[in-house]
Amino acid sequence: MSRPEPVRWGVLGTAGIARAQFLPALAEAGGRAVVVGGRDVARTEAFARAEGVERAVEGYQAVLDDPAVEAVYVPLPNPLHARWAAAALEAGKAVLCEKPLTTSPATTEALLAVAARSPRPLWEAFVFPFQAQHRRVVELVASGAVGELREVVASFHFTVSRPENIRLSADLFGGALADVGCYPLRLAHELYGVPALDAAVVAEPAGGAGGVEVEAAGRLTYADGRRVLLTCGFRRAPETTTLLLGTEGSIRLDNPWHPTPGAALQLRRTGADPVVEHPTTDARSFTAALRHVHAVLREEAEPELLAAGSAGPVAAALALARRSAGLAEPGPEATP
């Protein structure tokens, strides 16, 4: 039986995450990066040569117009996600769009409406739910290994040192909550399966005009008093330790967001020795998600973990957290 042809991808822009995460994982997953589009032709051509993309074109629309492209990766600045993800869907492409999917719950719902009438699927690029480690967590929680899950205590910190980094731009919907605080919110959605009800969050703003929160911490409450305690920011050494606390035990994760081989999952139960597992096998955190997208497009699997099932509740939780922290509403965004 012959193997299916590799799925052909187009990339919008030359973002660092495409270089560092997406393209290496695409190679591991067996896909092809056939074209990258950007506003600066020389820069885009240099990116294509350096990263092994087959062709470079001017502009994002040229990628969507390319008949060779089956799927599109959208790692553009946050306020451009909705417009270009919608355009890619309307061009008949499958879409993997960076998180946060959009900058507001209303725009998220508008984009999901476009996806609902599209022939191809839309995924938001939270890739951890596809990974073996997360699937093991879900299995353990569902089996009652920690009793009833009552609390998620999650961190995501790293250092941002360059002032020009778009994570520090309010106009580009930067800030710690939108960039990395959203990860615990997505984890809570996966494990609780219900929307957040309220939030109590504090944020430390950056100095200067147009600054965004560079650190944030707080609580979001879900049905029956379950909660998420999160801390996130751009001022500390990398830190992603996460605890899942239940009535009969706990699970500790070294890195639930982008685990690599060797990342530990530790199960603790009262009166028993800790059990340590290392479920992650893929070298790249995006790989499992891309394998799934490829299987769907080759009609070898039914789509799972689509944006339609999670993006709305996560956007609403993020908006609750931002409002509680007193952060400004995001600026205008091109709607689908």
Automatic annotation (TrEMBL):
Residues 134-252 form the GFO/IDH/MocA-like oxidoreductase domain. Keywords: Oxidoreductase. Residues 7-123 form the Gfo/Idh/MocA-like oxidoreductase N-terminal domain. It comes from the Bacteria. Coiled coil: none annotated. Belongs to the Gfo/Idh/MocA family. This is Dehydrogenase.
